[in-house]
Amino acid sequence: MKAIIGGTGVDTMEAIDSQRKVVDTPYGDVELFVGKGKDASLVFLPRHGSDHSNPPHLINYRANVKALEMLGVTHAIGIYAVGSITEKLPPGKVGLVSDFIDLSSGRDHTFYTGGEHGVVHTSMDEVFDTSLRSRVLKEDESLLDAGVYICTNGPRLETPAEIRYLRHIGGDMVGMTLATEVSLLREAGISTLALAYSINWAAGIEHGQVTFITDKQIASLKGRMTELCRNVLQSSSSK
Ligand code: HPA
């Protein structure tokens, strides 16, 4: 089984023929969509809920990832909306995340909480799956190398001074979800890849207030990313 995890702007996945299912995990219930017919090898998980009701700092990441593990998911592509800090991924563009810096706090970010759950230090030398990465690039050569994602706690956006700091420490884009989710996917042994799409220049990069790309632009990027994930995850070589 292969998963697509969608976020802001990708909370539903009409292009995939699926059935809603609620998975009861030790961390709580998770709503997801299991593919049918020709999409039977796919599952779609809207990380914020299909009605986008869970803000980034309150998402039940452990339940989400555990539900995928319980369904036998081996590979997942996460889709993340970000704000651009550098030119590597300007607004309106899609790219692959190469690495992340986690500046979130206070989240249930690990399965290894000691005692019966054990103490494990998961390796993060190579966060993203290299063979999934080559397959995605083969399918869409125009994808950008989006660079380093910095994960803030949110839900508020950053100040211009925070963005100057994030750029200084090596960030190319900023978002609020990837680090927590990807760490848990790695702990669960699920091979993962992250597609980032930028919806704005981060605070202070342009003069004036932060402005977002249009819903129409987001819908078109969603179509492109869905198609890409579907083609790659359904191809037999990613089994
Ligand atoms: N900051 C944090 N997260 C985001 C942004 C941003 O500017 N845009 C989209 N997700």
Q: Could you provide a short overview of the structure?
A:
By secondary structure, this protein is of the alpha/beta class. It is 25% helix and 28% strand.
What is the CA–CA distance across the termini?
A: 8 Å
Sum up the overall morphology in one term.
globular
Strand-residue proportion: 25-35%
Number of domains: 1
List ligands, each type once. Answer: hypoxanthine
Helical coverage, percent range: 10-25%
Mind summarizing the main beta sheet? 5 strands, mixed, barrel
The largest beta-sheet arranges its strands as 5-8-7-6-9
How would you describe this structure to a colleague?
The structure is a single chain. The protein is an alpha/beta fold and 239 residues long. It has a single domain, classed as Nucleoside phosphorylase domain (Rossmann fold, 3-Layer(aba) Sandwich), CATH 3.40.50. The chain has helices spanning 61-70, 130-139, 160-168, 178-187, 215-234; strands spanning 2-6, 18-25, 28-35, 42-46, 75-84, 94-102, 144-151, 173-175, 191-201. The chain has a 5-stranded mixed β-barrel. Strand 7, helix 3 (160-168) and strand 8 form a beta-alpha-beta unit. It is globular. The site of hypoxanthine has 12 residues, from strand 5, strand 8 and strand 9.
